[in-house]
Every structure is written in C-alpha cells, then in structure tokens.
C-alpha cells in the first residue's frame, strides 16, 4: 500500500508542480470541495491531487506527514488542505513541510464567538449519516429517481416534488439523480417526444401536476452533437429534428407557464441550484 | 418572490437562533459544504439555513445585504458564509450586519504565495462544466450506473471500474450512483441472492472480474429493519434470513479475497470514500 501510494505521487504534475493533498479525519469531501474551489482560481496548473481520508490517529497523521515531507525534500512544497478537527491531529499535520491550509481551524474560533458556545471538537460528521430521517429521505429519493427516470413509471407522480420535462438528452436524468442524492428531492423526469408536440398543451399525465414541472431546453447544435454520439447519422440526432423539438418544447413551456432553463452550457450542479432557487424547493 | 423569501426566514430556528446564509456567485455548493461542516461542531442548534446562489452583480449583493440587515435588526445577527470571488461583491457582502465568513478570501492570499502566481479573480467555476472531458465522463457514468443497477444488465461488465456486490438493501445502488455522479466511476452493482450461496465461489458472471469487486455487508438487525419497511412481515425481511445472507456473503468475500466493508452505520459518502481508498480508484 505504501509503495502504491508513493508511485502515485510522481505523476501528472511533473517535477515542478506541487502535489495537492486533501486530508481529513472523515471522508475528505469538504477538504476536496473547498480546496478544489480555491484551485480553480489558478487555471492551467497541472497539479497532482491526493485525498487521504479517515486520518483518525496521531500515528496515521505522522505517516501522512512523512509522505508530504519526503515530497518536499525532493521537489516543490506540497499544498495541504486539511479539515481535521482534533487538536492533536491538526497539530501534527501543521508541522509538515507543506503549505498548510487549516480549513477547519481558520473559522471555528469566529464561529464559537458568533454562536456563544464552544465547538464540540468531535471528528467531522458532515458527511456521516447524521440526521437519520434526512439521510433516509435522500436514499428514498434516489430510489424514486431511478423508478421514475425517463417517464418509466407514471405511478406516484403525485408524490413527486419536482417533475423535470424536456426532449431527450437535455440533462433530465443526471439532474434528477443529483437533486435526489444531494438534496433528497423526490424528482421524477418525463421525456417530451414528437407526439407531445401535436398541440401546445402539456402531455396528459402531467396536467394535474403543472405546478411541479420544470423544463429544460438546449441549443440545437449542442443537442445534435450529444445525440450524434448516441445514434450517429440518425434523424433523431439531426440538427433539423433537434431544432424542431427544442422550439416546440420552449413554446410548450411558455404557453403553460412552466419555468425553464437552457442547460446547453450548464453543469448538473448549476442546473440543480437553478431549479432549487426558481422552484423554492427547500432542502 | 421577495415576500416568499421573507416568509421563509421566520421559522424553524425560532426568534433566538440566528439564520445561516450560504452566499455565492455560483452554485453555493462550496459555501454549503464548508459552512455545514463547521456547523456540525455545534450540534443541537436549530438553525434556519438559506442558500442564495448566483449573486453576480453589486445590485444583487446589496439586495441580499438588505435581507440580512433586516433580520439583524429584529433578531440575532445572522451567520453568513460566502464564497463570492469578485472583490466588489465581497466588499458589499462584508458590510452586512451578519457575522461574515469569507471562505474564499481567507485562503486565497496564502495560496497565491504558495503557487507564486495571482488568482484569476473569475467567479467560481468549481461546479460548472469545467473540464468538458471529465464532465462528460461523469454524465456517462450516471447512465452506466442506471443501466447496470441491481444486476439488470450483465453486458459491458468488462467496462466497469468497480462492481459493488451485496445482498439486497445493503446500499449498493445509492453508492454506485454517488461514485458515478461525483467521481465519474463506472460502477456496476450486482445483488447476491440465495442461490448464489450454494457454494462459496463468486457468482459466475463475476468470475472474470474478481479484481473489480467490492463487497458490502451490514448488521442483521439493521438489514432486517430496512427490509421490513419495504416488505413487512416477509421471510425476506426476517432476522433469520438477513443473518443467513450476511454470514454467507461475508464468507464469500473472505474466501475470494474480495475487500468489503460493513455499511450498517455508514453514509453513502463514507462508503464511497472507503471504496475509493481501498480500491485505489483515481478520480
């Protein structure tokens, strides 16, 4: 294991780019999230990234420091993002020869003042099961999203908190999955197909649920490109067909006052944040 | 909209608990992630939480400050976590009467020194499409996970980077989905059923792929509880059946040198971090 780790460290970054470490006493998700967000401010740096989660003892912390120090001795000083909570572990990690970013310690004192109480000092529970009810609702939402993917099941649409509607390949499925997994939203999705465009009204199964519908659209060129990857040379993927479907879908959204967004250049995270905001869905 | 927002602010927290804001010029995901991680250090505080994403103009920032100041005038000072990047927007947000946590500004100077270069100052791209190749691989992985959920399709198992195996309801599906969506891992999952326990060898379709397999197990009591919710009073949900399946699954994992973890008290995030670490899967 140690050998594999070491091998992993020489790599993409080359000898002159520092290795970035995300260290945690828990999953490492928070360290990765903020660390990577900060690093997006420095585009073009080919940095090798390593997450080391579940550092829960001083011995493990010392081992990690050994790895960092070895890299520092032979190349640029590594960059170390840490969300470790325990004082003793943080103290050990802070002594490495890397540039140390204590993402936890930087803010906890100010937060103690704001809340007039002391931090618990317990290792990170942010991505544990935590609130069991909330956790179970997320897991149930993932099941629901799979069952109701792509209009597969019209049963229980009344349970949906959100119904994403769009022509094929505009991003309904991954967005439903993201909203379910991260926010516990019961998100169904429903594909708009050619026969739905015979008139401007919503497809019949959606009529009772207009207020839960959110539409996605895209750019014809972009949609055609995505569909070509799936079915090259098909009518389905043609620019004409994509243009036709998107124009009709947008007309349908507007006529029925269904809020919608053009997802052509958006990530699932951006689409999801937009949907949550526009639909006032609590999470 | 303004009215709905205001209504939302009086609530769960009651008059004496401060409202927590997550402010961002992008999705707000990073602010929520670190902010919530810090707040887990103060359990039992019933705090109302509001995410306001996509604050991209000074006018929008001023509007948000107005909302915060109004709350501060009539109750406890709100807590404000911000990842806004632009200097002008940060300056406006910092002037609110809330407790201001500049999650971005706190670290960017030190990072500029470490990397010997200036931050770009561009609004957050961390959760945008970013690297298009990486983004497409995540989206393809979500599709793959849905297609290969619960042993539905044994085609293309050779494409899998990971095959999660376990008795029903140990967490295979949400874990596959999480690994796909967050890390772009091609994760299939395969249910172990009674007939698979006739002997200790892996089910036939998995034999060529032993090295990609990772097992999940649970505690009989916990598994029985989860299955009872789905099929109350069934043999499937009985403690005897759960005990039998879990014991046999664990024997199978050990005999075939398949790494495994007991997921009974773990979240999908914790299971995923463990799988990534143990299987040395790069992301």
Describe the structure.
The structure is a homodimer of 283-residue chains. Chain A has 283 residues and is of the alpha/beta class. Chain A has 2 domains: 2-115, 3-Layer(aba) Sandwich (Rossmann fold), CATH 3.40.50; 132-278, Rossmann fold (3-Layer(aba) Sandwich). Chain A is 43% helix and 13% strand. The first copy, chain A, has 10 helices and 8 strands. In chain A, strands 2-1-3-4 form a 4-stranded parallel β-sheet, with helices on both faces. The two termini of chain A are 40 Å apart. The model of chain A is unreliable at 1-14 (pLDDT under 50). The interface between A and B is large, with 76 and 77 residues.
The tally of beta strands of chain A, per DSSP, is 8
Shape of chain A: elongated
Largest sheet data of chain A: 4 strands, parallel
Helix-residue proportion of chain A: 40-55%
Q: Which H/E pattern describes the elements of chain A?
A: HEHEHEHEHHEHEEHHEH
Question: Could you tell me how far the N terminus lies from the C terminus of chain A, measured between alpha carbons in angstroms?
Answer: 40 Å
Q: At CATH's second level, what is the architecture of the largest domain in chain A?
A: 3-Layer(aba) Sandwich
Please write the CATH class name of the largest domain in chain A.
Alpha Beta
Mean of the pLDDT scores of chain A? 89
């Amino acid at each position: 294991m140690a050998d594999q780790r070491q091998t992993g460290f020489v790599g993409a970054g080359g000898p002159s780019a520092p290795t970035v470490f995300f260290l945690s006493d828990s999953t490492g998700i928070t360290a990765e999230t903020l660390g990577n967000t900060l690093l997006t401010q420095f585009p073009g740096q080919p940095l090798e990234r390593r997450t080391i989660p579940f550092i829960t003892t001083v011995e493990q912390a010392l081992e990690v420091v050994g790895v960092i120090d070895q890299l520092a001795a032979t190349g640029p000083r590594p960059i170390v993002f840490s969300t470790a909570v325990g004082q003793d572990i943080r103290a050990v990690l802070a002594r490495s020869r890397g540039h140390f970013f204590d993402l936890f310690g930087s803010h906890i004192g100010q937060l103690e003042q704001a809340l007039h109480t002391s931090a618990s000092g317990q290792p990170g529970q942010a991505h544990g099961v935590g609130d069991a009810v909330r956790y179970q609702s997320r897991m149930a939402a993932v099941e629901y999203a799979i069952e109701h993917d792509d209009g597969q099941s019209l049963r229980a649409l009344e349970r949906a908190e959100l119904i994403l509607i769009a022509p094929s390949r505009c991003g309904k499925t991954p967005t439903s999955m993201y909203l379910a997994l991260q926010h516990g939203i019961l998100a169904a999705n429903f594909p708009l197909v050619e026969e739905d465009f015979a008139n401007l009204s919503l497809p019949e199964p959606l009529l009772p649920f207009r207020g839960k519908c959110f539409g996605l659209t895209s750019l014809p060129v972009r949609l055609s490109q995505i569909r070509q990857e799936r079915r090259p040379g098909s009518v389905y993927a043609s620019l004409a067909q994509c243009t036709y479907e998107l124009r009709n879908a947008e007309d349908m959204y507007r006529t029925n006052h269904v809020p919608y967004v053009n997802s052509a250049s958006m990530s699932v995270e951006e689409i999801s944040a937009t949907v949550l905001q526009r639909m006032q869905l609590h999470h």
